Amino acid sequence: MDSSATGFRGRIEWAAPALKDLLPDLSRDEQLRLENGGQADGRRHKHKGRQRIIKQDEQLMSMALRTEGERDALLIRRVQHALCHYNARHKGGEFDAVKPLMEARVGFRDQVWFHLNFWARSRSTNKIKRFFAEVHYKPSSDTSKYPRATTPIVEICTIMEDPLSQYRRACAFCPASDNILHPKGCRKFVCGNDKDRFEQRLLRCGTMYIEPPFSCPSKIERQGLPYRSSSSSPSQ
Ligand SMILES: [Zn+2]
């Protein structure tokens, strides 16, 4: 596993396990969400079953620029920053990163902020839990280097316990379509919370499309698909 992935320009991959290998260690709620295409109640997809969802996404797959591993590599850095923060505060209850799920980014207070969901595995129980994290990056005061170095700041990194249906999928900047579950409580996170949303000035930050998890082709599947070389280079 490429746990040392630090810079994601080019085609670096994060070797997340295959979905079939993760399923036994996921909660029943997570398994149901997968069957329902990411929704707790199945509103998005009337037909159940992961294979059917993949069929529906075949057209998207044919247009994909990234493999599943490349997609995950794009997101894993924020996951690692968040989990490092969590593990430092939960000695004896540490988790290891398994799979980035989704993230949204926004410009706020002159920094880039992220809300993300990811799966991580407990070192003590081996079970996989979903996490929510809010991470932003403070640019270095040294402007002589480009790109400028940044320091990750984790405002919150917390486990989302079952039932997952208790959590909201949107905040002031995360669209519900991204399926990022947010902790309950009006000020559990800083950016886009219910209390401060009308005073916050959130600036749209980039337009990079993040594919839903498990929707990109593997390396083998991409062979034979129309392939366009990617020039995307994530900033974080
Ligand atoms: Zn959000």
Describe the protein's architecture and organization:
This protein is an alpha+beta fold and 236 residues long. The chain has one domain. It contains six helices and five strands. The protein has helices at 19-22, 28-35, 50-56, 58-63, 68-89, 219-222; strands at residues 95-108, 111-122, 128-139, 150-160, 203-204. A five-stranded antiparallel sheet has the order 4-3-2-1-5. Strand 2 and strand 3 form a beta hairpin. The radius of gyration is 18 Å and the shape is globular. The chain starts with 18 loop residues before the first helix and ends in a 14-residue tail after the last helix. The relative contact order is 0.18. The model is unreliable at 1-10, 42-56 and 229-236 (pLDDT under 50). The site of zinc ion (ZN) has 8 residues, from loops.
In short:
Residues 79-183 form the DUF3615 domain. It comes from Sorghum bicolor (Sorghum). The protein is built from 6 helices and 5 strands.
Radius of gyration: 18 Å
Q: Specify the overall morphology.
A: globular
What small molecules does this complex bind? zinc ion
Written as H for each helix and E for each strand, in order along the chain, the element string is HHHHHEEEEEH
How much strand content do the residues show?
15-25%
User: What is the count of β-strands?
Assistant: 5
Strand order of the largest sheet: 4-3-2-1-5
